[in-house]
Write a structure and sequence with these properties.
heterodimer; A: mainly beta; OB fold (Dihydrolipoamide Acetyltransferase, E2P); five-stranded mixed beta barrel; B: alpha+beta; Arc Repressor Mutant, subunit A; five-stranded mixed barrel; 40% helix; 24% strand; DNA-binding (chain B); Nucleic acid-binding protein (chain B)
């Protein structure tokens, strides 16, 4: 099992199918064990029992990308109200992750 | 300061003996970590640094031999700071081991417990799933990297995580590509404007990321002009006299003196045969 979990955004999902990744986004909608999360674009997350998400809050998801580009959640961390996380900085980290991947992840 | 340096030499000379002590047992080195003020546990006291890193950088760090300092991007690291999400916590009799994951890898962090610590300090201070900010030292034991922490605390604001990763990237780029481009461009601009015929040569020098030749960012334009003239002048031990500089640059001797004071203050030039003759300090 790969121990690195690259940080990505919704548009990158198709390059990371069947890999474990990290996404930070805003919870848009909760529907049973499914959630819609906005990480520079909406994506669908299949939650596990331990996930406690709140609509409108920021969340960090560690999960595996399915072939249909939804994400099976392994761990979800609530990051508080939407305004408490600087999404520009989060996106900058994603950009740095792939631009200078030598310090972030191996292919 | 002077005393300090004298002592470092002494402490380095005894390095072998101390190191044997350090590797003698986990608890031993741990207790030395705990009392950071004591110089006994320190190896390269003069080059202490605290560098923000990702876990992948720690796992990729190189070590010339088992007693050598770890190197990241070719430069020695003594202490590091890192941020990661806790996957497991294992409290033990003498230490607490936190396994953390920052997305770039996983690493065990050892927090040593001193018998003289207060009651509350011997219990884990964070929960699994929380982010932890750790300051400590890289240890390599049987091909396994760990970090022995001097201090750690849970992260309350997620922005600290993003900030740390961006800072680690910035420092990585500083070591691999040299100082930020903005500063280099500025220095080049100065060359181009004031010392036309030397422009070409200086551009090369500035891009060669030679840290020793870089003037502090606050250096005035006049001081830069004088510095570059000194740099380009035919090299001899004497350097150039103030009158000579003034006539070559077509400046008032007064202004040259001011520029000289600035450069002398920054320690980039030095006086040679008398107070009015300067040469570039090369190192």
């Amino acid at each position: 099992m790969s121990e690195t979990t690259p940080r990505i955004l919704s548009p990158h999902l198709d390059s990371f199918t069947s890999r474990t990744v990290r996404l930070v986004g805003k919870v848009v909608q909760l529907r049973g064990d499914q959630a819609t999360i906005d990480c520079a674009g909406n994506m669908t997350a299949h939650l596990n029992r331990d996930s406690h998400l709140t609509v409108g809050n920021a969340v960090e998801i560690v999960g595996k990308v399915n072939p249909d580009l939804s994400v099976r959640v392994l761990r979800a961390t609530d990051l508080g109200r939407e305004g408490s996380v600087d999404f520009d900085a989060v996106n900058a980290v994603v950009d740095a992750t792939h631009r200078y991947k030598e310090i972030f992840y191996a292919d | 300061m002077g005393d300090n340096y004298g002592y470092q030499g002494y402490s380095n000379a005894n390095y072998g003996g101390q190191n044997a002590n350090n590797n003698g047992g986990g608890f031993m080195s741990g207790s030395q970590q705990g009392s950071q003020d004591s110089p006994n546990g320190q190896k390269v006291y003069g080059q202490e640094s605290l560098r923000p890193v990702t876990i992948k950088q720690i796992l990729d760090a190189t070590q010339a031999h088992s007693d050598a300092e770890f190197k990241i991007d070719g430069s020695e690291v003594t202490q590091v700071s890192l941020v990661g999400q806790i996957s497991t916590i294992s409290p033990r009799a003498t230490n607490i081991v936190y396994k953390i994951d920052d997305g770039t890898g996983t690493l065990e962090i050892q927090q040593w417990i001193n018998s003289d610590m207060e009651e509350g300090a011997t219990k884990p201070i964070a929960l699994e799933g929380q982010y932890l900010h750790v300051w400590g030292r890289i240890k390599g034991l049987q091909n396994k990297r760990t970090v022995s922490s001097q201090m750690l605390r849970p992260v309350a604001d997620f922005n600290e995580v993003t900030y740390h990763l961006l800072e680690a990237t910035a420092i990585h780029l500083y070591f691999t590509r040299g100082p930020p481009e903005g500063a280099t461009v500025k220095a080049e601009g100065g060359n181009g404007m004031f010392v036309d015929n030397n422009g070409g040569g200086n551009v090369g020098a500035a891009q060669g990321q030679a840290a020793g030749k870089k003037l502090p960012a606050k250096t005035s334009a006049i001081a830069r002009k004088v510095y570059h003239l000194l740099q380009e002048a035919p090299q001899n031990n004497e350097g150039l006299h103030v009158q000579n500089i003034a006539s070559q640059l077509g400046m008032q001797a007064n202004d040259v003196f001011k520029a000289g004071d600035e450069l002398l203050g920054d320690g980039v030039i030095y006086t040679t045969v008398d107070d009015e003759t300067w040469a570039v300090l090369e190192y």
